[in-house]
Amino acid sequence: MKVNRAFLCVVLGALILSLAAIPSTAADPLVVWCETIRMGTIEPIAAEWSKKTGVPVKVEPAGILETANKVQMAGPMGKGPDVFCSLSGTLGQLVITGTVAPIKTEFVDLSNFMDVGIDAATFGGKLYGVPYDISGVAMIYNKAIWPEPPATFDEVIAKSRELRKQDMFGILWSLETFYHSHAIMAGYGSYIFAETESWWDSDDIGLANEGAVKGVKLLKKLRTEGIIPVGTDYQVAPAKFSEGKAAAIIDGSWALPGIKQAGIDYGIAPIPKLDNGVYPA
Predict the structure, then answer these.
(1) What is the span of the domain harbouring residue 181?
(2) pLDDT digits (tens, 9 = 90+) for 242-261
(3) Which one, of 47, 43, 57, 68, lies nearest residue 6 by Cα?
(4) CA angle in degrees (0–180, nearest 5) for 11-14-17
(5) Which end of the chain has the lower number of beta carbons within 10 A, N or C?
(6) Pairing mode, strands 129-130 and 16-19
(7) How far apart, in whole angstroms, are the C-alpha atoms of residue 16 and residue 166?
(8) Cα–Cα distance between 132 and 18 in angstroms, integer?
(9) What are the two backbone dihedrals, phi and then psi, of residue 79, each rounded to the nearest 5 degrees?
(10) 280-to-135, 211, 213 alpha-carbon distances in Å
(11) Can you give the CATH number for the domain in which 75 is found?
(12) pLDDT per residue over 37-60, tens digit each?
């Protein structure tokens, strides 16, 4: 490891993070961990950077969901990567444990990135990485069942009740996963921390306000009526959709390869409006 050369992260782009400095020799290769599906993009960029600087680079595959934990274990032993891809949700943990170091912003043209991406890579006013992918969830629907996407959640519920009689599903997602379900709560006015002009107010938490309660009641309704049954997780939902047994799922772009392979004629639309006329967000 030799993270004093961590400015490679600005060449690669990412929520690519650099490790806190650990002494090393210049002869060591700079090690980069990234998702397997990103290696085809990162390897040629790393090779070009290596050619210009004379610093060898070794790009290694690493699962995005496990990277943060693995880095925290390997870093103190002087092992692991100098630069790595990680989910923005792990940044606070990595900073607090002293695992990552802030990057020098003079190496980065921040105008090339969306503000929301830079915000996600910032902690305590310091930039720790740069975004390479901004993902979200939407409604993916089966055009054979829904030629046009439903406009409201009331339509979704009505269709779901009808399809359950045929042992099919109107809409599925991992109901217990906050990443997916908070959109429903937020549509009614829930929030995690209140946003201020410069940061977030950690004393103002909106997870138990009136909107949050209303959102949770809708989620409970989906479960108690069997619209989204117990056991529906991030694997079951896309699997049922790919089998043609679900009219729609709430998921991200990562679900599309399997759906395409299954030959489903699908469309993508916003999560339908709630009964207050607001889109879940």
Answers:
(1) 138-269
(2) 999 999 999 998 899 999 99
(3) 57
(4) 90
(5) C
(6) antiparallel
(7) 46
(8) 14
(9) -115, 180
(10) 16, 12, 15
(11) 3.40.190.10
(12) 888 888 999 999 999 989 999 999
